[in-house]
Amino acid sequence: MEVDLCFVMDCTGSMGSHINAAKACILKVANHMEKLKPSVKIRFSFCGYRDHCDAANRLQIFPFTESYVHFERDLSTVSATGGGDSPEDVLGGLNAAVNQMSWRNEARIIFHIGDYPPHGSRYKNNDDSYPNGDPYGLTAESVLGEMKSKNIIYFFGKITHFTNEMVNIFRSIIGEFPVYDLNTVDTGLLVNKFFEATCSVIKTAISLIE
After folding, report:
1. Along the 210 residues of the chain, how does pLDDT read in single tens digits?
2. What is the CATH number of the domain that holds 190?
3. What is the DSSP track for 88-151?
4. Measured between alpha carbons, how far is 84 from 175 in angstroms, rounded to an integer?
5. What distances in angstroms separate CA 204 from CA 1, 12, 28, 43, 153, one per listed residue?
6. Which structural domain, as residue segments, surrounds residue 180?
7. In terms of pTM, does the model score above 0.85?
8. What is d(CA 175, CA 168) in angstroms, rounded to the nearest whole number?
């Protein structure tokens, strides 16, 4: 079986430790899955998002690759920077992952990691430069609907309670999905949590296809 796994990650200033954890565990995940189930081949991709104030640096996209070394090299260029108010361009990041990636395999996964929700008062944001929602007109309904139509399975890595309402809204649109606890300041523990969550994501997606 071949798996398409896209990491969608908030890359603003508050996400430094989690980006470093992602970098640290990518090859570990690849090697583990190869030993656990050699018949599984994984293509990795990455879509980092920041916020609308970050202009050209708002999105950082690396297409699918089967080369783990290549992917690790690309990921090494990602840094935690930017961001304005508390909400981020979550919908822009997810939309880019859904529509700008070359999805081809039966098992299709988005593993989204973030600490704040999208723009819009519906997410109960207290500090929001765009209380009416995404300035480009994206909505959770349109983005997640497109994701579902392409048979992409969504998983979320939770870091703070600020994403609770986002999770509720997303579940009302696409149904239940696993949420993984990635909230820790312990670097070693975070790498282990990230590793275990990513392996679980892959195995869960495969079990749904088989």
Report:
1. 889 999 999 999 989 888 888 888 877 887 777 676 667 888 999 999 999 999 889 999 999 998 888 888 898 899 889 988 899 999 999 999 999 999 999 999 999 999 999 999 999 988 899 999 999 999 999 999 999 999 999 999 999 999 999 999 999 999 999 999 998 878 789 989 999 999 999 989 988 887
2. 3.40.50.410
3. --HHHHHHHHHHHS---SSEEEEEEEESS--SSGGGT-SS-S-TT--TT---HHHHHHHHHHTT
4. 31
5. 13, 29, 18, 16, 10
6. 6-209
7. yes
8. 9
Q: What is the DSSP letter of 200?
A: H
DSSP bridge pairs for 181: 158
Q: How many domains does the chain have?
A: 1
- Is 1 within the bounds of a domain? no
In-domain check, residue 35: yes
